[in-house]
Amino acid sequence: MMRRRSFITLLGGAVASLLAARAQQPAMRVVGFLHPGSANANELEVSGFRQGLKETGFVEGHNVAIEYRWTDGQFDRFPALAIELVRRPVDVIFVVSPPAVVAIKAQTATISVVFSIGEDPVNEGLVSSFNRPGGNVTGFSNFGNQLFAKSWDCCTIP
User: Fold this and answer.
1) Taking phi first (over 0 means left), then psi (-120 to 50 degrees means alpha), and beta for anything else, what does residue 27 get?
2) CB-based contacts of 39: which residues, under 8 Å, 6+ apart?
3) Dist. CA 31–CA 19, nearest whole Å
4) Cα dist from 99 to 53, 106, 108, 117, whole Å
5) Do the Cβ atoms of 37 and 68 come closer than 8 Å?
6) pLDDT tens digits, residue range 65-76?
7) 20-53 per-position pLDDT tens digit
8) Is 77 helix (H, G, I), strand (E, B) or coil?
9) CB 11 within 8 A of CB 138
């Protein structure tokens, strides 16, 4: 089973790959980072994300800038933060919750969006299909929420 930090490192690498594919000059690339939590509570995730970027040649403050936006658990802030990131503008946006993806999709059809969620992105309406997500949105789903729910199905007491 892949540990969370390893997974975030892998995801940082995926975002870096998108940046590398879009890079045509040595200018500073900008990554938007939209998260439903707080910076303090998610230091390990951010560390893994930075490590993934670094492993593919992108170092924060050197050749990539990261625009962090946190909702601190207030999901109603997603739309306003999405607008901020799109207006910045950023080269790619990384998000970690379905409501964040929905908020970003409502603001742009041109900026690449990479997600990491525990839900089924097809059932959530975030992508068209797994093998052909369509549009500007792609990402990873570890189906953690579905597996957790199923694990409790076996243990309920009537």
Assistant:
1) beta
2) 46, 68, 70
3) 8
4) 24, 11, 15, 10
5) no
6) 999 999 999 999
7) 655 555 679 999 999 999 999 999 989 999 999 9
8) helix
9) no
Enter the tokens of residue 55. Answer: 């492993």
Residue with tokens 């990554």: 31
Instruction: Please give the model's pTM, rounded to 2 decimal places.
Output: 0.72
Distance CA 147, CA 12 (A): 24
Token duo for residue 94: 């990384």
Domains of the chain: 4-153 (3.40.50.2300)
Give CA separation, 98 vs 34, 37, 57, 154, in Å: 11, 13, 29, 27
Q: How far apart are CA 90 and CA 25, in angstroms?
A: 15
Amino acid at 21: A
What single letter denotes the amino acid at residue 12? G
The partner residues of 66 in beta bridges, in order of sequence, read 31
